[in-house]
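DATA CLASS: polypeptide
GOAL: derive structure tokens

***
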Amino acid sequence: MEEKKQNWVIKRYLAGTPTRKIAAHLQIPVRTIYVVLQHYKRFGKIKGCKPLGRPKTAINPRCKETIKREWQKYQCGSLKLHWVLTSKGFGVSQRKIQEVLDEFKLTAPCPKRRGQRKYCSYRWPGCLMVLHTD
């Protein structure tokens, strides 16, 4: 649960609001309210939220130098650098290569290809709608 909601729950509980009403208002289980209150009573503060997603892995400095050296030699993007480094026996992902290139500002994003591609499909609103020009 978010920190704002946890603070709100604690304030309402200390004001005397029943836990069932708090849970009904937030549309969450009563057990979640009890867990938040138990943690607050035990430690005197709210529970911190876990960071979302997989934690980032640090890139080896020697690997960064290798990527930089290969870029200066070939001056190409992350896709071709990945192919070059793989053929030389380095197991570096294309995403990590792109992170290194962004860190050293070696490549600039292409404005034409940025963002999500939009695919439109034009369909009739009903499946049985057909135009007849008789």
Q: What stands out?
A: The helical segments are 3-15, 19-26, 30-43, 61-74, 78-87, 94-103. Residues 61-107 form one domain.
